[in-house]
Amino acid sequence: MIAPAAGDTSDDPRIRRLLDERTAALARRGVDIAHRATTRPFLVCAAGDDRYGLPLDSVVQVVPARTYTPVPGAPPELLGLIALSGRVVSVLSLAGALSRPLPSRADSARADSSRAESSTATGHILVLRGGIAPVALAVDRVLAVADVDGALTTEPVLTGGFGADAVSGYAPAPGPEAAHQGGEAGFVVIDLPRLLRRYLPQG
After folding, report:
1. Model-level pTM?
2. What is the DSSP string of 100-158?
């Protein structure tokens, strides 16, 4: 039998406990790193009665709603154009692009008139990153940023409509918010390339 070398403390219970604790801490760190690698941040916003999540790295800027310059002959979901940082940006209604209900033209005109009288506009405009042409999405309001584990995202339930294929899943809301809203605070995950391909020039 080989005797332990002088100074060998491997049989010291205190040292063994410290080594075990260090091994456990490293294991937890590895789990945390793996968990962060599988999560993705989403910008959660409200549009109509629904909540939607857009990949956070796809949104370059959030600005308050403002008056749009109409585009003759445009589909109803294309609200119009705005000037932003020296660029002309096309603004799409997120709800409209997903074939969700939109206010009628008459209702929109009355709303625009009311906003002009009060000099206030409601909602937010999400300016998207990249693309051949500058595009932004109009929503009722921005709610939060949520980190979502991809493993928790469920498959979408498609209900038809032009924008249905832009829904890539459903994510449950994390933590206290879900508890506060009875577990119903999740959001629909949007696939932006699919959503925008009908509106952007191909090239």
Report:
1. 0.68
2. -----HHHHHHHHHHHHHHT---SEEEEEP-SSS-EEEEESEEEEEEEEEGGGPBPP--
